[in-house]
Amino acid sequence: MEFSNDNISAFIKGLIEVGGVHKVDDTPDKYVRNVLTSKIEELPIEAGSRKLAIFGSLANDVIIVNPFAEGESNTTRSTWFYHDRNIAISALIAKAMEHVLTVAARSHNKKAKEEVDDQKVIKFVGKYAVNVDNKMVSEFKQIRKNLAEFATIYYNKKKRFSTLNCVLFNEGTPKIHPSVRAGSWDILKQIFLKVVNVKSLDEFKIEPQNPDMPVFESFCYVFLNVLDNIKPVLELAGVKVDTEELKGHLKYLSLYQQRAKWCSSTAQVVPQAQKLEEQKKAAPAVPTGLMNNNVPWAPVRSLPTGLRGAALMPPQPSVPMPVPQPMTPVMQPAMPVAPVAPIAQPVMPVMQTAPMMQYQPSNLPTGLSRPVYGAPQMPMVPAPANLPTGLMRRF
User: Fold this and answer.
1) Cα angle for residues 129, 134, 140 (degrees, 5° grid)
2) Could you give the CA distance from residue 241 to residue 238 in angstroms, rounded to a whole number?
């Protein structure tokens, strides 16, 4: 299959627009807007907030919603995506449940006027219709008040699967809502299973096939399966949900993931003035008593583990260590020496290079004489006359 970034953007856009709370712009910026206020959604960051856009956006300085980039360190966008989609699925289930309970309570009220499609709705209640009254409708509204927790799709990391959960089936929920009658809990559970069209919530369990995006892959299947199952009740309640186009993307999720997994938020542009202000805020505070001193202040660091229980000394100013200087050799004072008369240096005679002379030793036998070459001996030089007595020496 040949596809482009537009196919990936269309799939993410379709998921976000389910429920009618958010809408994604069709412009190249692809901003995520609130349907009621038409304002662009923003997410908080360390220095303010940034606008929200989806994969394929050409806008600068935004947070990109890209659930295909699973496992990255920055989880702000993924947290928003799953939180928002869980609220959407929770609101749709609650809408379907409330409609069924309202029709069931009206069905055995003689003064109430039967409306169109009431009989079609009653089949989702079955034999429990006679037990539903207006008070049970009020009890249900109280239970589903927190849509973020009423019905959620969660991923079990240990067992690697996603499924649908509802607070109606949690053991601790009755204690949180003590005003709800004990008999209402079982009836609400059975009606909930009929609305989502399963005998047990385990039927929604999905084990992911792609190890690179186990959460998103399994979430998509559970999300669309739940929408398919509650679609008949939603249509009776006047809410239209189209899942066919979204389901057409499911078989290409792995291909989408290979192409989109590298996309993350665009770089944040921080003005220089804002950087300086952040540096000032991050600098350690200087105690009042040292404001006029020139001694640098050293912030206190955490103690090692073994000293956590020891008494802490108050923070001390750090004095800079002296800069090492090279050693200067220290000369020992000279011992006093008796004055000595200056010694006149003799004037050495200039040596003249004598020519080589041939001479004949006198003690060689006759007939064995041979020339002997050598230099004449240096003559003795008399010692200078001005040397002190006892210092005479030969040169």
Assistant:
1) 85
2) 10
